[in-house]
Amino acid sequence: MSIQSTTSPAQLTRAVNGKTAGSTAAIPAGRTVELRSPLPDGSTYVPVRYTGTRSLVLLETAFD
Hints:
Blueprint: E1 2-5, E2 10-16, E3 19-20, E4 25-27, E5 32-34, E6 48-52, E7 56-60
Antiparallel strand pairs: 1-5, 1-7, 2-3, 2-4, 2-6
């Protein structure tokens, strides 16, 4: 996932299958950050939830 904070520092929390994936990510103002979260092996249905500050812009997501 590629994400950018537009005007102020921001935080993003990720959850995969209802469990927090990694720690809360701090994203500096005006910076673009790439984040990766592991997906469970063999899963065909995986709910992913992102929770963060309103100044965040989601630029790209990919499931590899």
